[in-house]
Design a protein that fits this description.
The chain is α/β, with parallel strands linked by helices. The protein has 3 domains: 131 residues, Rossmann fold (3-Layer(aba) Sandwich); 119 residues, Alpha Horseshoe (Serine Threonine Protein Phosphatase 5, Tetratricopeptide repeat), CATH 1.25.40; 149 residues, Orthogonal Bundle (DNA Cyclobutane Dipyrimidine Photolyase, subunit A, domain 3), CATH 1.10.579. Helices cover 47% and strands 9% of the residues. The protein contains 19 helices and 7 strands. The strands form 2 sheets. Strands 3-2-1-4-5 form a 5-stranded parallel β-sheet, sandwiched between helices. The chain has a two-stranded antiparallel ribbon with strand order 6-7. Strand 4, helix 5 and strand 5 form a beta-alpha-beta unit. Helix 4 runs parallel beside helix 5, helix 6 packs across helix 11 and helix 11 crosses helix 16. The chain is globular and about 75 Å long. The relative contact order is 0.11. Bound molecules: flavin-adenine dinucleotide.
C-alpha cells in the first residue's frame, strides 16, 4: 500500500523553524513528508560547473534533511524536472494535499500552475502561503487603490501596516506580521520513517564544489546597531551579509525584521527595499525583459563587447569599478554601494544595455534574486520605478573619495593598483562619458516622447 502523506514542498525556504507553509501543513495534521526538487530546468542553464549557489543549496538541503531525521522524519530530495517528479510522487505516495510557500518569479508561477493543474486532476489540493516577504503587493496598496511605484510612500504604508495588527509574543506586543510560526510544536505530525534517502550529491547533478566562503546566518548586534553609519563603506564589514540567506530562506525574514526594529531603523528600511522590488515584480512582471519606463526602450546602446569584457574582468582603469567587479568574480558578492557604482559606469559611461550587466550579475551573485537585481539595474540605468533621473550620473572619483578615501577597498581587491601594471587612464573618462551619456539619453527620450 502507498503511504498516505501530506507533502510540503521546500523551495526558497530551506529551514524548519518559522516557516509559514510548513506550519500550516503540520498544523493541519499530516503526516507531513517534506521534499525538495533540484530543478533541471534551472540547473541545466547554469554556465559553470563550480557554482557556489548549487553547493549552497545542496549543503542546506542536506542539513535540513538531518534536522528532519533528528525528529524521526525525513526529507526526500529529487533531481529532475518538477512535473516528472510530481508524477513520480503521485505514483509512490497516496498524496492527500500539497503545501508550499509562494515564489513570485514568472518561471516559478508557471511551474506552480502546471503542478497545481496536475494535482487537481486527481483532486489533490495545492495550498500556498506567503513566507518569502513580509508583505505581498496586494497588502501595500495606495489608499485610492493600485500599487506604489515610488519607494518612500511605499515604505510609509509598509511601516503603518506593521502596526495595524499587534499580537502577543513571549509577553510582548509585536506586529502580527512578524510573529514566528512555532513549527516545533507540531513536529510530531511529520511522517515518521526509518528509511532515509540520500540527498543527491553535487557530482550526481553534474556540479563540483566551489571555493567560495559563505557568510553565516548570525550577524553581530553591533553591525546592525551602527548600520546607518557603516553601510556605505565597502572596505569594512559594515553590512549584514545576509542576502544569500534571505534568497534561499535559510533565515526567516520575519525574525530578522523583528530584530531590526529594536536595533536600527535604517537596516529595517533595507529589508523593505527587498519587499518593494518583490512587489514591483509581482505587479509588473514585464520588467523582467523591458524597462519599467517605456520611453527608455530605445536607448541606442553602444554595446561594445571588448569594453564589456573589461568591465566584467575588472580592468577598466577605474579603481572602484575594478575592485567591485573583482570582489564579485572572486567572492560571489559585491557591496551595495559598489553595485550602484559599477552599474552606473556600465549603463552611462560605457552605454552598455543594463540587461547585459543584469545577466552578468545573475551568473555571478550568490545572492542573485531576480526582483532585487532587476530593480537595482533599472534604478541605475534610470529606467526603473524609483529611478534616479538619467542626468544624475555617478562620478566615480567623488564616490571613491567619499566612501573609500584611503583606497582600502581598492587595495583589497586590486593588488596591482598604484603600480605600473595598473592602467594609467580609465577606459572611459568621467567628463567625456558623462557628456556622451547625457546626449544619448536626452535625444533618445526626446524621440520617444515626440
Ligand atoms: C545593480 C544592483 C543589483 C543588485 N542585485 C541584487 C540581487 O541580485 N540580490 C539581492 O539580494 N540584492 C541585490 N541588490 C541589493 C543589494 O546590493 C544587496 O541586497 C546587498 O548588497 C546584500 O548585502 P547585505 O546582505 O550585506 O545587505 P545589507 O546592507 O545588510 O541589507 C540587508 C538586506 O536588505 C536587503 N537589501 C539591501 N539593499 C537592498 C536593495 N537595494 N534592494 C533590495 N534589497 C536590499 C537585502 O535582502 C539585504 O540582505 C542589488 C543592488 C544593485 C544596485
Amino acid at each position: 500500500m502507498k503511504p498516505k502523506v501530506t507533502i510540503f514542498w521546500h523551495r526558497r525556504d530551506l529551514r524548519f523553524e518559522d516557516n509559514a507553509g510548513l506550519y500550516r501543513a503540520l498544523k493541519a495534521g499530516g503526516p507531513v513528508l517534506p521534499i525538495f526538487i533540484f530543478d533541471r530546468n534551472i540547473l541545466d542553464k547554469l554556465p559553470e560547473q563550480h557554482d557556489a549557489r548549487v553547493m549552497f543549496i545542496r549543503d542546506n538541503v542536506a542539513a535540513l534533511a538531518d534536522t528532519y531525521r533528528s525528529m524521526g522524519g525525513d526529507l526526500r530530495a529529487f533531481y529532475g524536472k518538477p512535473l516528472d517528479i510530481w508524477k513520480q510522487l503521485q505514483a509512490n505516495y497516496d498524496v492527500q494535499a500539497v503545501y508550499t510557500n509562494r515564489d513570485y518569479e514568472p518561471y516559478a508561477i508557471a511551474r506552480d500552475k502546471a503542478v497545481e493543474d496536475l494535482l487537481n486532476e486527481r483532486g489533490i489540493p495545492f495550498h500556498h502561503f506567503k513566507d518569502h516577504v513580509i508583505f505581498e503587493s496586494d497588502e501595500v496598496q495606495k489608499k485610492a487603490g493600485g500599487p506604489y511605484t515610488v519607494f518612500t510612500p511605499y515604505y510609509r504604508m509598509w511601516r503603518n501596516n506593521l502596526n495595524d495588527r499587534l499580537s502577543n509574543y513571549e509577553g510582548k506586543e509585536i506586529s502580527y506580521y512578524l510573529k514566528p510560526y512555532p513549527n516545533e510544536k507540531y513536529a510530531a505530525n511529520l511522517w515518521q520513517t526509518d528509511t532515509h534517502q540520500a540527498v543527491p550529491t553535487l557530482s550526481e547533478m553534474g556540479f563540483a564544489p566551489a571555493d567560495v566562503p559563505i557568510p553565516g546566518t548570525r550577524v553581530s548586534a553591533q553591525i546592525i546597531k551602527t548600520y546607518d553609519q557603516t553601510r556605505n563603506i565597502p572596505g569594512i564589514e559594515g553590512t549584514s551579509r545576509l542576502s544569500v540567506h534571505f534568497r534561499h530562506g535559510t533565515v526567516s525574514i520575519r525574525q530578522k525584521a523583528l530584530r531590526a526594529m529594536s536595533l536600527n531603523e535604517t537596516f529595517l528600511k533595507e529589508l523593505v527595499w527587498r519587499d518593494f522590488y518583490s512587489n514591483i515584480l509581482q505587479e509588473f512582471p514585464r520588467v523582467v525583459d523591458a524597462p519599467f519606463r517605456a520611453e527608455y526602450a530605445d536607448i541606442p546602446w553602444r554595446n561594445d563587447e571588448s569594453e564589456f569584457k573589461r568591465w566584467c574582468d575588472g580592468t577598466t582603469g577605474v579603481p572602484i569599478v575594478d575592485a567591485g567587479m573583482r570582489q564579485l568574480n572572486e567572492s560571489g558578492w559585491m557591496h551595495n554601494r559598489v553595485r550602484m557604482i559599477v552599474a552606473s559606469y556600465l549603463t552611462k559611461h560605457l552605454l552598455i544595455d543594463w540587461r547585459w550587466g543584469e545577466g552578468y550579475f545573475a551568473d555571478k551573485l550568490l545572492d542573485y534574486e531576480l526582483a532585487s537585481n532587476n530593480g537595482g539595474w533599472q534604478w541605475a540605468a534610470g529606467c526603473g520605478t524609483d529611478a534616479q533621473p538619467y542626468f544624475r550620473i555617478f562620478n566615480y572619483d567623488s564616490q571613491q573619495k567619499k566612501f573609500d578615501p584611503k583606497y582600502e577597498y581598492v587595495k583589497q581587491w586590486v593588488p596591482e593598483y598604484g603600480t605600473p601594471e595598473y592602467p594609467a587612464e580609465p577606459m572611459v573618462e568621467h567628463k567625456f562619458g558623462r557628456e556622451r551619456a547625457l546626449e544619448v539619453y536626452k535625444s533618445a527620450l526626446a524621440k520617444a516622447r515626440s
